[in-house]
Amino acid sequence: MEAPDLRVYNTLTKEKEPFRTVDPGKVRMYVCGPTVYKPSHLGHMVGPVIFDTVKRYLTYLGYQVTFVINITDIDDKLIAEAPRQKITVTELAERVTKDYVENLRMLNVTGVDHMPRATHHIPEIRTMIEGLIAKGFAYAASGDVYFDVTKDDDYGKLCHRDPAQLEAGSRIEVSDKKRNPGDFALWKAAKPGEPAWDSPWGQGRPGWHIECSAMSVKLLGQTLDIHGGGLDLQFPHHENELAQSESYHGTTFVRYWMHNGLMKTGAEKMSKSKGNEIVVSELLKRYDPETLRFFLLATHYRRPIDYSEDRLDEVRRGLEGFYRFFERFERITKARFYDLQAPSARSSFEPGQPATEFLVEIVRLWEQFLEHMDDDFNTGGAIGVLYELLTALNRFADSRQLESAAADPADIRALQRGALVLKELSQILGIFHQPPATRETVSNELVSGLVQLILEVRNDARKNRNFALADLIRKRLGELGVSLEDRKEDTIWRLGGTC
RNA sequence: GGCCCCUUCGCCAAGCGGUAAGGCAGCGGAUUGCAAAUCCGCCAUCCCCGGUUCGAAUCCGGGAGGGGCCUCCA
């Protein structure tokens, strides 16, 4: 199968291109993960959430996707950080990796198939370096091995700069071991006490970029369909990966280079070295993971995202409308929205016969959503459609009075079909798969019973037009975090206020 | 200094040559005992100046402002 309408922006060509994979029906996707020396901040979640969504959409279209995120667990940063925490480099890497994996799990990033570690692939890395030396692209220099950028005639094609530009005004560390200032390390000699592996060039460790080249070919093959990562990795990391891999294999390394925009705090990029990072595990104590995922997907992936708590609160308020609809849906159909089984592959949704105005509208929105996704994974536009879908569903429930006892069963079935579409599309974005923790219903029977009791008292008061008492009860319940909605036949209540 | 990118309603945001999605906030209405929730309606001509075009937020040139990379970074 192929997806005739999907177009993907490629950093290499700076254009949106029709999506065609190496093997029809299969997608090999590699995304650069973190160097594990500090707990993840929000910026680290952008790529995983985006590419998890990319995988979900491609899978929805019928592709079989293999998704790899690597872990760089050996690097100067780890070597510097471990002693500060009085632990080994290995312990540090494990601790931080665990934090990262847990954050991904929370954000419902479920599509990762492999998470290879650099230190588990030293032999593969060594082999590749030896090959690069043999082919004349790299050279050993007193324990180090460098890639010679002058031997790669298209070096700079990914970041769209020629090597001369890269050198001009550069602050590249001067090293008399390098033949050219732009040469980068494939292998670094170990200083005493540093973690080290044997190699033909002596004890040492891999350079920063080589592990991605070695691990991606091992797990996915010589040519990747998609290689993703943050925009800040475009140079030097991806440029160097590209140079190594193509020089070594002599084949195209990547068909589509996808770079996500960076998270900003105020005016500046969020980064570990700037110390302005928002640690994910901390943020998750105050916000539902779904709020974070929705926040990340609300902006197109290639644009920068400004972090602020006001913004998260706003996203949360937007989400509330969906949550309230899910409760309404349950009241009407006696079925939980979260239990709906929507098609996980692209369905062919038809309004059916007779085609009601409502279902025709649903089909229209369903198509619009997919058009947005086809346009370089435009999740922001797609979310806009989700809101329109929400309004359409509520409008239908209102106009057909679906909450009254006299509701037409055919109308209820139509609502269920509409909700099923919302479910189908939500799955593509990886949202609404379970109720957010903060909205979980009260499991304590005593509390529910007491609230029910007080509501009966209050409704009695209302019948007797004792509104002062009724309003007092509502006010006091509100202060306890219980908000009320008086409806025709009954009063419903929920935790979490009216936000 | 060099190379990229961005600038759309109070805030967030889609838009990729055909006459400005959506959300939040706000205002008005329906509904309600009053609220809440929901629905309906109102709410921008797209940083500035030129140009191309029958037609531009969308293309080209110049200017202003912001950001990224050139050094570890998702």
Task: Provide structural commentary.
This protein has 499 residues and is of the alpha/beta class. It has 3 domains: 7-300, Rossmann fold; 309-435, Anticodon-binding domain of a subclass of class I aminoacyl-tRNA synthetases (Four Helix Bundle (Hemerythrin (Met), subunit A), Up-down Bundle), CATH 1.20.120; 438-495, no CATH class. Helices cover 44% and strands 14% of the residues. It has helices spanning 43-61, 76-84, 89-106, 122-134, 163-167, 210-220, 234-249, 280-283, 289-297, 309-333, 357-374, 379-399, 409-429, 445-463, 467-479; strands at 7-10, 15-18, 26-31, 64-69, 138-141, 144-147, 184-189, 204-206, 224-230, 254-260, 263-265, 268-269, 305-307, 482-486, 491-495. The strands form 5 sheets. It has a 4-stranded parallel sheet, with helices on both faces. The chain has a 4-stranded antiparallel sheet with strand order 5-6-7-8, covered by helices on one side. A 3-stranded mixed sheet has the order 12-11-13. Strand 3, helix 1 and strand 4 form a beta-alpha-beta unit. Helix 2 crosses helix 3 and helix 9 packs across helix 10 (309-333). The longest helix is centred in the middle third of the chain and has 25 residues, at 309-333. The two termini are 45 Å apart. The model has no long low-confidence stretch (mean pLDDT 93). It binds one RNA strand of 74 nucleotides through helix 1, helix 5, strand 9, helix 7 and strand 12.
